[in-house]
Amino acid sequence: MPQQQKVLSFSEVLVTCRIFVYVLLIVLQLSEASDTDLPVSSELSRPIVHTPVGIYRGLRAQDGNYSMFLGIPYAIVDPQNVFGPSIPHKFNGIFEAINDNSRCPQIEESIISGSLDCLHVHIYAPNSASIDNPLPVMVHIFGGKFLFGFAGRYLYGPRFLVRHDIIFISFNYRLGPYGFMCLNNSKVPGNQGLKDQVQALRWIKENIKYFGGDDSKITLAGNSAGAVSVDFHQYYLQEQLYHRAIVQSGVALTRDVGRSLEPDRYAPIKLAKELNFTTADINKALLFLNQLEPRVLVGATETSGINLGPCIENQFKNVENFITKSSINVKIVSQRDVDVLIGITSDEGYSLLGLYLQSGKYKCKDLMSLLLETNFEFRNESQLSDDIQRIVQLFYYGDDNQCTENKRTEIKIYGDFFTNSPTLRTITKYLDSGIENMYFYMFSFAGERNYAKDYLNVTSTVGGAIHADELGYLYDISYMKKRLRDEDMLMVDKMTELWTNFVKYGNPTPKPSKLVPLQWPRVSHDKMSYLEIDTELRLGSRPMHERMSFLDLLYKHLRRYQK
User: Fold this and answer.
1) How many CB atoms lie within 10 A of CB 263?
2) DSSP assignment of 416-483, as one string?
3) 31 versus 196: which is more confidently predicted?
4) C-beta separation of 281 from 331 below 8 A
5) How much is the pLDDT for 2?
6) Who's near 428: CB < 8 A, 6+ residues apart?
7) What is the CATH classification number for the domain harbouring 491?
8) pLDDT of 365 higher than 70
9) Average pLDDT over all residues of the chain
10) 292 vs 445: CA distance, rounded Å
11) Residue 299 belongs to a domain
12) Which carries the bigger pLDDT value, residue 111 or residue 236?
């Protein structure tokens, strides 16, 4: 499909734009280590936590009143089967929890980094936390298309959050071929990265009380692919490992370009061939790949074009499964006894499609074909595909079939199909499942800490917020430390008050405050209430009503064709 290939090249361009940020973060990580990794006070003042599995000695943060326990192993990768399930970490002794530099094997354009010694958890606990005074816990899953990302504090700095008396936790999980190879094979059934997340949640549930955390108030949060992960746990997790969920700009119903639930069962053979080892035997290919230095395999995966991501697994006896059928066909989510905070940004489509639209290679028909091919399987019904394409085009463009000069319509279409509509349909599914305590938001604020706008160098022509922009107002991102204008810090204060109130109480506005002088109503079938988070906080109902109603009818009409 030539249209599909063009968009995959756009994804590579998007990664190129992000590479500058990641290189900068690595440089900062190295240059700041002497200031933040080593305590100013004596060794005797370092925080120590005793648990049944060992003793952890961390650091006192120099930018706030909290302790840091960094790089704690929660699991290890099986050296005999690096593509299979991880093994819970067994530890007994004293662990120096002072390093959050690890990341799992990954590639950002031409830079390959990481190792398989990466399944680590990072815990940030306010000084007020203790076994006698347990605090609510927020666990964050990073995004990155399940191909790249890391949990270190240089991107997900905890300072803005922990000052509200919550414990913040982040962790790494396997990515790319090590996390999402999915085979018709009991040794590599698939979704290892998501199962790593489950291992981390089990470790946190069992041990966080020793760090002063309340194991009955754990909130699982994520953005983009991290939010997709949270939603997958909502659908498929069979244990009560968290009690609240924050889902930021990503759900399991999203069918993003380059990511499909349909796995490539011959991936090992193709990867081995990419590295000049030819075989038709899956097991021989796996044995060859298992022995490779991870960076070699990650590089080969990049050039092979193999599609890797969450998949529908084949089921095997005595093998832990996760995703066993498409979320489209799951009527009731498994995690129903949870509170939910879920939302989008006002311009989701820009960061997902913007550079591709600016490339000069784009045609309106490309986008329509892309939308239908990615979201629906029409098989041999080409006439139906043409008819649906014409209907969508008429709805968004009217009789004018030409692209708009500023691409605003195209950005709306892309955001609607890949984030906005899937999120609204997920909210409905949550309500149908019996989740009653749910809050919906739209983040619209444009300031100097808008994360995605910054790394994409987006100009003021996009007035609102694009995909992942809100991260700069929740996390103390290292390279943004000097971007502390009054209006930006006011948004940091508002966002972190709302988010931590939800973590603590299951309600982002338990009572009006000076910063948030309103009460945010819950979502219901009768009223799709939401909070627009901008310079001024505004309450509304059913955002983008006409567009979402149109797409809701489209998906209902084409249900049997959905991927």
Assistant:
1) 23
2) IIIIIHHHHHHHHHHHHHT---EEEEEE---STT-HHHHHHT--TTS-S-BTTGGGGGTS--GGGTT-
3) 196
4) no
5) 38
6) 525
7) 3.40.50.1820
8) no
9) 88
10) 46
11) no
12) 236
Residue 224 falls in the annotated catalytic set: yes
SS3 of 77-133: the string is CCCCCCCCCCEECCCCCEEECECCCCCCCEEECCEEECCCCCCEEEEEEECCCCCCC
The token pair at 122 is: 């990072």
The candidate with the shortest Cα–Cα distance to 100, out of 75, 126, 120, 125, is 120
Question: CB-based burial of residue 435 (10 Å sphere; 0-12 exposed, 13-18 middle, 19+ buried)?
Answer: buried
Domain that holds residue 41: 2-263+307-561
Single-letter amino acid code for the residue at 533: I
Q: Quote the number of domains for the chain.
A: 1
SS (H, E, C) 231-282: HHHHHHCCCCCCCEEEEECCCCCCCCCCCCCCCCCCHHHHHHHHCCCCCCCH
Beta bridge partners of 107: 112
Q: Which one from 108, 302, 348, 373 is the annotated catalytic residue?
A: 348
Is residue 213 predicted with pLDDT exceeding 80? Answer: yes
- Average pLDDT on 425-432 reads 97
Q: Per-residue pLDDT tens for 236-289? A: 999 999 999 999 999 999 887 545 577 889 999 999 999 999 999 999 999 999
Q: Is residue 34 part of a domain?
A: yes
Spell out the residues 6+ positions from residue 529 whose beta carbon is closer than 8 angstroms to its own.
440, 520, 521, 522, 523, 539, 540, 541
Residue pair 248/221 in contact (Cβ under 8 Å)? The answer is yes
| Distance (Å, whole) CA 138 – CA 135 | 10
Among candidates 133, 126, 107, which has minimal Cα distance to 16?
A: 107
What is the per-residue pLDDT for 102? 96
Amino acid 481: pLDDT: 85
- For 523, which DSSP code? P
According to the model, what pLDDT value does residue 402 have?
A: 65
Percent of residues in the chain assigned helix, strand, coil, to nearest 5: 40, 15, 45
Q: Which two tokens stand for residue 183?
A: 């085979």
Cβ atoms of 339 and 506 within 8 Å: the answer is yes
Residue 133 lies in a domain: yes
Q: How far apart are CA 314 and CA 183, in angstroms?
A: 8
pTM for this prediction: 0.91
Mean predicted confidence (pLDDT) in 62-81: 96
Q: What are phi and psi of 366, to 5 degrees?
A: -60, -45
Contact 516, 439 (CB under 8 A): no
Of the given ranges (171-175, 258-262, 386-390), which has the lowest mean pLDDT? 258-262
**Which residue is catalytic, options 86, 102, 170, 224?**
224
Q: Rounded distance, CA 48 to CA 126, Å?
A: 14
Residues 6+ apart with CB under 8 A from 226: 140, 141, 142, 143, 248, 250
Tokens for 466, please give them: 């694009």
* pLDDT score of 42: 53
Separation CA 8–CA 279 (nearest Å): 28
Residue 440 to residues 163, 208, 356, 430, 553, Cα–Cα distance (Å): 24, 29, 30, 12, 21
Indicate whether 286 belongs to any domain: no
Is residue 460 annotated as a catalytic residue, yes or no?
no
- 278-321 pLDDT per residue, tens: 999 999 999 999 999 999 999 999 888 888 999 999 999 899 99
CB-CB neighbours of 382 under 10 Å: 9
